[in-house]
Amino acid sequence: MTQPETGPVLGRLALIGLGLIGSSVARACNRYGATQEIVGYARSSATRARVTELGIVDRVVETPEAAVADADCVMICTPLSSYAAIAQAIGPHVPADAIVTDVGSVKASAFADLAAGIADPSRIVPGHPIAGTEHSGPDAGFAALFRDRWCVLTPRPEARPEAVTTLTELWRRMGSRVERMSPEHHDRVLAITSHLPHLIAYTIVGTATDLADDIRSEVIKYSAGGFRDFTRIAASDPVMWRDVFLHNKDAVLEVMQRFNEDLTALQRAIRRGEGQTLEDLFTRTRAIRRGVIEAGQHVPPDPARNGTQPVEDTPSPPGDAVA
Amino acid sequence: MTQPETGPVLGRLALIGLGLIGSSVARACNRYGATQEIVGYARSSATRARVTELGIVDRVVETPEAAVADADCVMICTPLSSYAAIAQAIGPHVPADAIVTDVGSVKASAFADLAAGIADPSRIVPGHPIAGTEHSGPDAGFAALFRDRWCVLTPRPEARPEAVTTLTELWRRMGSRVERMSPEHHDRVLAITSHLPHLIAYTIVGTATDLADDIRSEVIKYSAGGFRDFTRIAASDPVMWRDVFLHNKDAVLEVMQRFNEDLTALQRAIRRGEGQTLEDLFTRTRAIRRGVIEAGQHVPPDPARNGTQPVEDTPSPPGDAVA
Fold this sequence. Notes:
2 copies of one chain form a homodimer.
Chain A: E1 10-16, H1 20-31, E2 35-41, H2 45-54, E3 59-61, H3 64-68, E4 73-76, H4 83-90, E5 99-102, H5 108-115, E6 127-129, E7 150-153, H6 161-173, E8 177-180, H7 183-209, H8 213-221, H9 227-233, H10 238-247, H11 249-271, H12 275-297
Parallel strand pairs in A: 1-2, 1-4, 2-3, 4-5, 7-8
Antiparallel strand pairs in A: 6-7
Helix pairs in contact in A: 4-5, 7-9, 7-11
C-alpha cells in the first residue's frame, strides 16, 4: 500500500475547468511532482489566456475533447450543472483505461450525470476535496489548498480498484487525507456540515439587507458581532452554490426541515420566556464545540505520510500558502 | 473635546462581576492608566480568590454594596438577569455623583432594571462594548479586548451630560470607538448583527447533534466545511446568551420571523428547482460582503486618537493580546 513519494502518480492529467479548484490542483501537482504533464481546458477564452500567462499547465486547449486525448486521468472541475454536457462531449474520446473523476460538492448526481455520457462507468471515481475559499477564478488558486484537508472519494461498488488506488495516491500527494464512502452518504453528511450552513448564511445576509435603511447601514457598521462570519460564507461562488442546492435537493430539504423545526421550537421558548430550555440547549452545544476541537486535534497520523499530523482544520486564506 | 491621554479618567472604578468582560476592563484600565483604583466584586468566592491571585484589581470585596462605596463609576459586568437584584442591593449606597453603567448585550431592559433600583436614574448610562470571545471567567480576559472595537452608549435623554462624557473618555482610553444611540435602536441593530446569528448557530449545532449516530461522528470529522464556524459561535457563555434572548425578546422575535420567511422562500425555490432565484440571491449577498469589507476599511480616523485607524474589525483570540 505504501508507495515511495517520489515519482509522479500520473502521466497525463486532463483538467476540465481551471477556476479556484482546477488551478489549485494544477499548482499542487506541479509542486509535489504528482503528474508528468497537465493539459487544461476552460470554457472562456479569457480564462484560457490567463492560465497560459500563469504557466500552471503544460498545454491549454480549446475543447474538452482535445483535453482528454491520451489522458491517464480526467478531472472535472466545473459547476455541477455542466457535467452532463461535458460527459456527452468527452465520452467518445476518453481513453479506455483513463480514470474519470471530479471535485464537485455533491456526489450522487455527479456520478449519474457522468455515467450518462461515459461508456464503461467503472472508470468513474467521483471525488470531493473538502477545501475552498470565498474567491473564484484561476488567480485565486494556490498549491497548498488541499494540504491537511479531507478528500472524500465515492466510488460505486463496480469502480475499478486500481482507479481508486491511483486517485487516492494523487490526493495524498497533494497533501490530503483520503476517505471513502458512498455518494449518498457523502451527500447527507455534507448537507449538514456545509450546504445548510451556507444556505443559512446566504439567508441571514439577505434578511439583514431587507431591513429598513437606518438599520441596514448600522448592520454593516457593527458587523463584527457574528454577522461578519456569515457574510464571508455568503460571498462564495453563486453559480457553484446554486448547483449544490439543485443537485442535493433531497438531503438539503431534509436538514432544512429539521433545522426549521428546531428553530421554531427555540422561537417558541423565547416567546414564552423559557430560560431553562434556552440554557440547556446552549450548554449542550458548548460541549459539542469542545468535541469538535478535540476531533480536530486527535486525527491519527496517516501512515502513508510518515506519521505527520494534519494541522488544525481551518481554511487557508488565499495567498497564505504554506509549502 | 480633545483631552490629554495622560491622567486617569476616573478615581475609583467599582466592577460588579469579574468574568471575561469585567476582568478585561480591569486589565485595560490598568494598562492604559484609566483609573486610580479598582474595587471588584464577584458573587462566587472562587472567582474572588482567583482575581485576588491575578492581582488585576486593587481590592476584592464580598458584597456589591461594599464595592460601590465612594466609587466614581459603577460598572455592572454580570448576566442581564442579575441587574434588578444588584440595583436593589447597591441603590442606597451608590454615591450621589457616581456614574452607573454596564456592559450587557441588551440595553432597553438593562436601563429599566437598573432604574428600578437606583434613585435618580440620570446617573445611569448603559453601555455595550461590542467585543468578546467564546471563553468565560477571569482568566479569559485580556487588556486589548476592546481595542479598535465599537462601544455603544445608550443614555436616555435625561442622563447627565458629564456622565456620558466621562464614560466616553473611559472607553476611548481602553481603545474603543464610542457611538451613541437610543437603547431601543441598539437592541434592534444587535438583534440582527449578533443575537440572530448566535441563535442560528446554536440551532444548527443542535440539529446536527440530533442526526443519526453514523452521520453525527462524521459531522464532527468534516466540520471544516462551514459547520465549524457555527460551533465556535455556539460555544459562547450559555447563561449570558440565555439572558440576551429573554431580555431582547421583541426585537429577536421580529428578526427571527423575517429570517424564517426568507428561509422558507429559499426552501420553496430549492424544492421547485428554481436555479435563477437561487443564483440571484447568492449574487446579491456576495455584493453585500464586499460592502462589509469596504465599511471595515473606511472607518474615518478618530480625531481624539491622533488620526489612528482601527484595525480590521475581527475578534482578537484570547492570549493574542496586542498592547
